[in-house]
Amino acid sequence: MNLLIVQASPKKKGGASRFFSRLLRLFLPGVRKETVSLSARQDFQPILELLPSTEAVCLSVPLYVDGLPSHVVEFLGRAEAYCQSHPCRFRLYALCNNGFVEGKQNLPALRMLQAWCEKTGMPWGGGIGIGGGVMLQVLGIVYPILIGIILLQMALSFFSTGTLPGELWCSLAIQICTWLFLNSGLLFCLARLSSAIRRERVLPNRFTRVMIPAFLFVPVADVFMTLSSLFHGRFLVTLLKRDKWHSE
Q1: Are 61 and 148 in a shared domain?
Q2: In a shared domain, residues 57 and 116
Q3: Which domain holds residue 230?
Q4: In whole angstroms, what is the distance from residue 97 CA to residue 205 CA?
Q5: Beta bridge partners of 124
Q6: Residue 90 Cα to chain centre, angstroms
Q7: 96-133: string of b/e by CB count within 10 Å (b at 16+)?
Q8: Closest Cα partner for 143 from 173, 178, 111, 169?
Q9: Are residues 94 and 44 in the same domain?
Q10: Within this chain, do residues 113 and 206 fall inside the same structural domain, yes or no?
Q11: Do 228 and 150 fall within a single domain?
Q12: Distance (Å, rounded) from C-alpha 156 to C-alpha 162?
């Protein structure tokens, strides 16, 4: 099988959609797959030219105003016209994420993609609606750092004393189990989606979210968005010092 994973966030760097597409790749070892970015009109033609040679497409896209981003809608229009004049036959899957806590908020966007498949005659493979997408992305950055720090402490302890303290093992287990719990719904849905892609089957739309109660999610998200706005939407980039903007 040839799988084309399309990261359809308008952001050129980072973004939750890019994070989820990378996670999906980890669930598909041995599958021939290519990942491309769809963030502007100049990306349209290179992606269109890949469609005749692919058997499955997975679109990783953020929710914009309870629908698809405008550049994705425009691309789908171009893809419809392109497939009418070229031999395209692929099954479309989708990963749709939003900043709200509930994954079902993505249902309208998934229905838009399913309607496009019905209009063009392409098979619809199903999709996953992910709530708390940005928070899951942040957790995917923070927890590996915390786990790395604990592993470094364990290494230093072993080389200096020849022992590994029990509290470090306990801290490591807590961090790993906490990350797995917070991401358990996402990991389960990605496993189901990857299985459907491998078997070329239809996956009924599934919805998941970050495993944090809504009464905790809302204030944490409010604090994050406030800090992000203070840095013109670059809070996470600034925090990690991964962008040229920080040094200018």
Answers
A1: no
A2: yes
A3: 213-248
A4: 13
A5: 92
A6: 21
A7: bbbbbbbbebbbebbebbbebbeeeebebbbbbbbbbb
A8: 178
A9: yes
A10: yes
A11: no
A12: 9
Q: Bridge partners of 64?
A: 67
First and final C-alpha spacing in the chain = 45
Same domain, 125 and 144: no
For residue 245, the model assigns a pLDDT of 39
Side-chain-facing half-sphere of 97: CA atoms under 13 Å: 26
Q: 206-209 and 2-7 as β-strands: parallel, antiparallel, unpaired?
A: unpaired
Same domain as 217, residue 207: no
Instruction: Provide the number of structural domains found in the chain.
Output: 3
Q: Based on the domain organization, do 247 and 191 belong to the same domain?
A: no
Contact 130, 98 (CB under 8 A): yes
Q: One-letter amino acid identity for 11? A: K
pLDDT of residue 8: 94
pLDDT averaged per 10 residues, the chain (length 248): 93 86 94 94 95 96 93 96 93 95 94 96 96 88 92 92 89 94 95 95 94 82 70 54 43
